[in-house]
Amino acid sequence: MTENRSKKRNKKKTVSFFDYNLLFIIIFLIGFGLVMLYSTSSYTAQMKFDNSTYYLKKQVIAYMIGFVAMFVLIYVDYHVWEKIALWIYIASLFSVLVVLTPLGVSFNGARRWINVGIGTVQPAEIVKLGLIIFLSFCIDRIGKGLRKTGVYLKLMLFILIAVGMIFLITSNLSSAIIIFGIGFVMLFVASPKYSHYIYTVLAGVLCGGLFLLMETFVLKSFRLSRFNVWLNPEGYAQSGGFQVLQALYAIGSGGILGKGLGNSIQKLGFVPEAQNDMIFTIICEELGLIGALAVIALFVFMIWRFMIIANNAPDLFGAMLVVGVLAHISLQVVLNIAVVTNTIPNTGVTLPLISYGGTSVLFIMCELGLVLSVSRRIRYEE
Amino acid sequence: MLTFKTYNRKKTVIYSCVMVAMLVCLMFRLVYIMVYESEYLGRKADEIHERERYIKAARGDITDVNGNVIATNKTVCTISVIHSQIENPQKVIDLLSEKLSMDRTRVKELVEKVSVREKIKSNCPKSIGDEIREYNLSGVKVDEDYKRYYPYDDMASKVLGFTGADNQGIIGLEVQYEKYLKGKDGYLLTETDAGGIELENVAEKRVESVKGNTLRTGLDINIQMYAQQAAGKVYKMKKANYVSIIVMNVNNGEIKAMTNVPEYNLNSPYELTDEFMCEGEKEQDLLNRMWRNQCINDTYEPGSTFKVITATAGLETGAVKLSDTFSCPGYKMVEDRKIRCHKTTGHGSETFVQATMNSCNPVFIEVGLRVGVDRFYEYLGKLGILSKTGVDLPGEASVIIHKKENVGQVELATMSFGQSFQITPLQLLRAVSAVVNGGKLITPHFGVAVSDCEGKLIKQFDYKETGGVIRKETVDDMRYVLEKVVSEGGGKNAIVEGYNIGGKTATSQKLPRNSGKYISSFIGFAPASSPEVIAICIIDEPEGVYYGGTIAAPVIKELYENILPYMNIDKSY
Q: β-strands B62-63, B214-217: how paired?
């Protein structure tokens, strides 16, 4: 018996792998996210739509579609996407342009969505996935050529096209930052060099500083107050500081053990749109420091799994896909938590897998499907 | 196919580590916010969640000396609607306009107004509030509230005063004893959502209100009613401007009754009474006049009743003895002035006792001049004429009198029979009390004690008394003389069958002297030999006969006929 089995193994020499750890975290976070979404949104949904499960239902539907998409992507060989990467990228950019057509939809004064009949879709989320696939494809083709400044700048140009479109057409600064971040991290990981990236960061810091100075002293615009609000939220409680202040009240009133699931008061309309960007504050209020740290720990664990999968991926294309998803999710988690704790100025970033948002859910599930698909190709010798 | 190189792996690890490091920093940030700032932020959050609803405290009662409640509270209802909660506006409008007997269009207007909470009517009787509540219409709120209620309507209105919209004292005893009467508001802390809707199932913090303390006054409702009746009668009969009566315990200053007719209804203090319905004057001025307590807020020239003080000063200083004889030619020359007696033909030869009975001006001028300015003022001071009485009511008027250094012979002469200066009726009453009670200057007062709403005594008020301002011999002389005034002199109309009454009448000409307007007054105490009660009656601008002895003395007589037996004062004969 024993002999037989070892023979069999020797014959194959390798075993296939599937990252059940990651899948478990994903499912756990989704389940947890749905519970928190219901807790956070039921009261306002009842008040607004006379239906306490309004948000929950839409989110569950999005996840159901998302799971289907994820499992399809897990079992489809990811190299398929390499072949049509350019088209995916072009299509994603095209979806941004659709916002300008009559199909574009505005919420709260921002035109960022397109109507697809059964609901609305946010092109920024499509672009994130499109860019990850397209850059992975480019990097796989170029390989060490990325060492050359010219090549680096050419790829940077592709990223900036997407960033520029999102920023200018949908005037969505936070998504533009995330997209730039994804692209930048992917290039950084792919390249053997460091200097390009240090220069880019320096240039970015310089531009950002100039931008802020210009706004502060010349335009005196909305982001100026956002900057002031960050420094002194209580001084602007009636204007821009309201959301941040309410977020801090929610987090602070949670204390170490929290008020208990369902017992948040800040979710009763005090924290505006708590189910979106601010859902982490309600987690803090209800589950306390313990719950909040546990959620962060789960994301740390997720980042670690991404890193393992990337570093063991069978080829560069697969690895870069995982790095892109790693960049996407980690950036959003860090920015979201930094914003709600008023560590950085307020900008609307959702918390992956937990915040409400159909498009975000769907495309993150696709990205996770890609990652798991890559993990399935990992071969390791016995 | 290219593979992931070592440097790729290294950089993936670098990036992952940076991200994890950032998350760890954020964890520390969370620890800071949720542990160190938690208390502050939690409190701030509670502040915006909590809504404090006041539970109004009932105001303390005011009772008379026997514990009869003369000011208390009545439960009333405030009816309001909450626009967003109304389901059936038509029904609400129908019900409210019917039950509150209000104009339909007005109610419709209020119900349809888009506001958080709209008050439809306040101060509704509790019965109507209960009826409306029984219909249980959503959006209609019935809140109970306390309203000050005075069971005796206009009794002692100018003494008690009334309260304002927030149940705070505005005038009278209500404001004087505000700190004792006012209760301690309770409150109800409830948590609300951002829209201000109260949450259910959240523990409420409730702090009950505490009713204010009960003030016991020295007023006696029976004596007050008798006084008010007697004053009302003469007020009507003589078509007077007003009639004031004060009845006081002569020995300790406890005021048993104080009335100024016309009184007004304390349950509707902002409605002008018929007497004050004048065209062309500002309503507020008229109201202020209606609320005025003339016994304390107004001064007048006391006239002959003041001769009690002059006589006391004369007897005390030895300037005059009861047996001294005088001659009255009908006038008295002082410096270059000829001051007339009211009897222009003169009283002829008379003793000091007779002169007092006759209320003879020339004799009292003589006595006053003999006493001299310094000693005269000394006794004014001793008898409390130069200072306020310190009565426990707001707005006591000050005496209007010559400065001592400006007083010449003429001024002294006129002051000797009660002219050329002004005092309040209460001041005169206090001064005469000191003369007849054995030389004790008392503080007239209403408030006696304060007890909590369960009847436990909290505070007994003490008032200043200065004994020995008059010698005993003088006291006896004055009691004797003033008894004579009533039994045989100008105060005959105040004789009460079975009692010895002491007193003095007065008829003062109002300024200007040729106006033909008078103030008739009488001050009397009983029993004359050992007084227990003193009363003063002042009739302002009577029509027809205006002599104090003729119209004011009978008022006190009638009053005493009623209250002396009531007070269990033994008959003397």
A: parallel
